[in-house]
Amino acid sequence: MLAAATLAVTHAKPAKDNDRVGSPNVARENAAALQWLSGALALATIAFALLAVRVIAATPYEQAIASALVVLWPTFTTETCKLGNDVLVYCFGAASLWLLASWQTSERPVTIVLAAVMAGAALNAKLNGGVSALLVVAMVLARALRPPRGKTRLPRGVLVALGALAVFGGVLADTVIRLKQGHLGNGTSSLTRVPDHFMNFVRLDLASFRETPWAFQEGAAHGRDYFWNYLFRTSLFDEYRSSRPVLEVSGYWLSAAAAALLPFTARGVLSFARAAFRRVTDGRRTMFVALLGWLGFAVLYRAVYPYVSTNDFRYILLVVVPLASATAAGAGAVMRRFGKRHVHLAALAGGIVLVFGVASLEIVLDWS
C-alpha cells in the first residue's frame, strides 16, 4: 500500500504536451525520482540502524565494531538501494527498532508511540514488516510481565501505541480483503522447490563452502537445500557471483571473516539473553527479541513455503542490526577479559572486522 502511494506521488507531476503519461520522457523522470527516493530511504535505514546500535553499545569500541558491521555488511548496502517496497520495510523497521531500544531506557511516551507507528508502516509496506509490529507487542508484554523494580507495568503511551498498531492492522486487513492481496509464495518455480525435511533446518554442509562462496538457486549443489547454508550465503552475496578470480578470493575471505566473528556473536547473544530475563532498563532485551523474531520468521517462511526464494536473507535483512550489536558486545567482553594481558586477543575482533570490510568493499564496488 505504501509502495503504491509512493508511485502515486511520483506520477503526480502534470504532463506537458510532449511529455504525456506513458511517454519515454515521463518514464525516465519517474524512474529517476524513484531512484532518488530509494537512495534517500536507504540512507535513512542505515542512519536508524546506526542509532539503534549506538543505544546498545557499552563502550566506544563496541560502537565502532557494531557500526562498521552495519555499514560494511554487503547486502545491507545493496538491498536497501534497490527499487521496490523492501526498502520501506527496512527503513520503517529500523526506525521502530531504534525507538524501541531507546524506549527501554527513556520510557518517553512519544518514543513508544512513534515505534508503533513505524512498525505499523512497515507492516503495511510488506507482510514481513509484521515482525516489527510483533516486536512492539512483545516488548510491551515483556514490560508488563517483568517491569523494572519500582516501575509501573504499563507506562504512559503504551495504550496509545497499541491502538496505533491496531489501526494499521485494520488498514492492512481492509486492503487485503478488498484487493485480495497478501498471498505469500507466489511466482515460485518447481525448479527452485526444496525438500522440507526437518534435517534441512539443522544440517550444515561446510564442505560446500570450499567449492564456491556464492549462492545458487538452480540445482541442489553447494548446500542449496540446507536452510542455514543458503541463508548464510545470501546474507553476504544475495544473487551476486563473479567468475573473476580476485573477486572469488574476496568472497572466500568475506565468508571466512563472517564465520570467524560468530564466536563473538554467540558470546554477545548470551549476554543479551541474560539481560532479556532480568529487570533491566536498557535495549538488550529489544535486540534479543528482535534477533529471535527475524530468525523465527525466516524459519517459518521457509517451512511453510519450501522454495529457495523464500530462504533469501533479504526478507530478514534487519537482523543485521541485532547481530552487529551482539557481535560488538561479544568483542567488548573479550576486550575486558584480555585487554591488559593479551592485547592481540583483545583486538582480534577488530582485525577480523577490518578483513571483513576490505573484502566487502571489493564485492560491493563490483556489484554496483
Model description:
This protein has helices at residues 2-10, 24-56, 60-72, 74-80, 86-106, 109-125, 130-145, 158-179, 208-211, 227-237, 245-276, 284-304, 320-338, 343-346, 348-367. With 368 residues, the chain is mainly α. 68% of the residues lie in helices and 0% in strands. It starts with a helix and ends with a helix. The protein contains 15 helices and no strands. The chain is globular and about 60 Å long.
State the shape: globular
Distance between the termini: 29 Å
Major sheet attributes: none
Count of beta strands: 0
In short:
The protein is an all-alpha fold and 368 residues long.
Write the layout of secondary structure elements.
Layout: H1 2-10, H2 24-56, H3 60-72, H4 74-80, H5 86-106, H6 109-125, H7 130-145, H8 158-179, H9 208-211, H10 227-237, H11 245-276, H12 284-304, H13 320-338, H14 343-346, H15 348-367
Helix pairs in contact: 2-3, 2-5, 2-13, 3-13, 3-15, 4-15, 5-6, 5-7, 5-12, 6-7, 6-8, 7-12, 11-12, 11-13, 11-15, 12-13
Could you list some keywords that capture this structure?
368 residues, mainly alpha, 15 helices, globular, disordered N terminus
